[in-house]
Amino acid sequence: MSSKQTDVILIGAGIMSATLGALLKELAPDWKMTVFERLGTPGEESSNEWNNAGTGHASLCELNYTTEKPDGSVDISKAIKVNEDYQVSKQFWAHLVNSKLIRNPQDFVMALPHMSMVTGQKNVDFLRRRQEAMAANPLFQGMEFADDPATLKKWMPLIMKDRTSSEPIAATRIAAGTDVNFGALTRMLFTHLKKQNVELNFKHQVDDVKRTADGRWEVKVRDLNSGQTERHTAKFVFIGGGGGSLHLLQKSGIPESKGIGGFPVSGIFMVCQKPEIVAQHHAKVYGKAPSGAPPMSVPHLDKRFIGEKEMLFFGPFAGFSPKFLKQGSMFDLITSVKPGNNLTTMIASGLNNLGLTKYLIQQVMLSKEQRMEALREFVPDAKNEDWELVVAGQRVQVIKDTPSGKGTLQFGTEVISAADGSIAALLGASPGASTAVSVMLEILRRCFPEQLPSWEPKLQEMIPSYGLKLVEHPELIRQIHATTDRALGLAAAGKLHSVM
Ligand SMILES: Cc1cc2nc3c(=O)[nH]c(=O)nc-3n(C[C@H](O)[C@H](O)[C@H](O)COP(=O)(O)OP(=O)(O)OC[C@H]3O[C@@H](n4cnc5c(N)ncnc54)[C@H](O)[C@@H]3O)c2cc1C
């Protein structure tokens, strides 16, 4: 069977492939690109607006990006990294809007205050110290702390209403947060790519990825409508299959794919669409993870903007399913374990993470009433009939051997690439879609070292902070906030929205 030739193949039509495709179209407009997606439309898996929390992760509310040191001071280095990565995403999106390559940014990003909330005196003291450390940094300027009921009622009326507990409670609030509809953004980016003559193939599943004798990559693709198999070759392949990436990476056989496993964690949200309740909450309010819980199951109550509607999401509750994709197979986990590749890593991980497995099984077993109890810690008078359960996406956490132990569970994202840069895959899911642009820049650095010097002027034009540590350039931070907020329609973010 003859194979069709192209320059770049992107596997999967989620936010990651969309972002890499959009970057490459700006940097190498003449390259031929082909996309294969097993589902019928782009952004149907984790990137879909119903499958993730839509938080523009910038460390403005997530307590797990800071740690308390033994001397009581607060380490904000990870928070700085996550924030800087999000500023990179915002700059690229602003460039696409300013260049009229995508339109109507309000359809995918909205200004929304980000808050952290804690209860108990020890946590309140920590939150105060954390706010002092963060507000002093130019990236987090404007973060406020309150522990007085009057201010807290103004900031989060639904959470404070009918609260009878006398336990100390405090929150931080920063107006510069966002709610991002990553599904809408993914769809917009693929519409843009289509206009730029990128070949998009939906209902096309990649079943195999093999090196050819001349050093190119051949992908074996099944047309799910006709059942026919096609072969396509490219100089560069990006495996952006989300949960589907690990299996394809293993098939590539590159040495870098060895000894890596995946552990799927599913998510469930509780959603309220009653306008009179939704109108009482205008923020993303992140709490503290219960003890033993993985970092991605920090409970939070978010205003969401989906299509024309506003609604509230609470969760996510973690759970376990052996599928690596929401629309995946029950055999995904078992078929990812391979003797001579990752078997010992997976066994070690299973033994190391018995506590997590037990936690996830307990979470799966929760009844709706038990989930309502967790919600009532945020919304004391929440009623069963106002909230429905919605199954979210699957997150496949990376398992690998690290200096700290065999079979260690990772909670971040991992770029795996061949030594010659001809193939790369993205594994893991946190901080996730928010950092898509930084992660794809990392792929450009690893896989296109020859082209990068000639691409850098364009990269600097699109992303003014490219190559710089923003935290060392306070003036640039102010400029970037002003220009991205203007382009993305976020400029009104500073005002306290009336929710009463
Ligand atoms: C519950 C939950 C909450 C989250 N909250 C946030 C959040 O608040 N903020 C944030 O930034 N991130 C969040 N994330 C993470 C974020 O959703 C993901 O990091 C991001 O969407 C991953 O994008 P992707 O393109 O890699 O994968 P996906 O969006 O899953 O896309 C992968 C695509 O590849 C396709 N595919 C797979 N295998 C094949 C194959 N063999 N052939 C062809 N196509 C294939 C799939 O069908 C899919 O369309 C959350 C995730 C979950 C699950």
Description of the structure:
This protein is an alpha+beta fold and 500 residues long. It has a domain at 266-410. The protein has 15 helices and 21 strands. The strands form four sheets. A nine-stranded mixed sheet has the order 7-8-6-15-16-17-14-18-19, with helices on both faces. Helix 1 packs parallel to helix 6 (182-195) and helix 1 (15-27) crosses helix 13 (436-447). The relative contact order is 0.18. Mean pLDDT is 93; it is low at 493-500. The site of flavin-adenine dinucleotide has 41 residues, from helix 1, strand 11 and strand 18. Flavin-adenine dinucleotide binds at residues 11-17, 36-39, 44-47, 51-55, 57, 182, 205-206, 240-242, 244, 248, 267, 316, 325, 392-393, 395, 426, 429, 431-434.
Short structural summary:
It catalyses: (S)-malate + a quinone = a quinol + oxaloacetate. This protein is 32% helix and 26% strand.
List keywords for this structure.
500 residues, binds flavin-adenine dinucleotide, eight-stranded mixed beta sheet, alpha+beta, single chain, disordered C terminus, nine-stranded mixed beta sheet
The total strand number stands at 21
Instruction: Tell me, briefly, the overall form.
Output: globular
On the 0 to 100 scale, the average pLDDT is: 93
The radius of gyration is 23 Å
Give the topology, please:
Elements: E1 4-11, H1 15-27, E2 33-36, E3 67-68, E4 74-75, H2 77-98, E5 109-111, E6 114-119, H3 121-135, E7 144-146, H4 149-155, H5 157-160, E8 169-174, E9 178-180, H6 182-195, E10 199-201, E11 204-211, E12 217-223, E13 229-239, H7 245-252, E14 260-272, H8 275-278, E15 284-286, E16 300-306, E17 309-319, H9 332-335, H10 343-352, H11 354-365, H12 368-376, E18 388-402, E19 405-409, E20 414-417, E21 423-427, H13 436-447, H14 452-462, H15 474-488
Parallel strand pairs: 1-2, 1-13, 2-10, 6-15, 13-21
Antiparallel strand pairs: 3-4, 5-9, 6-8, 7-8, 11-12, 12-13, 14-17, 14-18, 15-16, 16-17, 18-19, 20-21
The structure holds flavin-adenine dinucleotide.
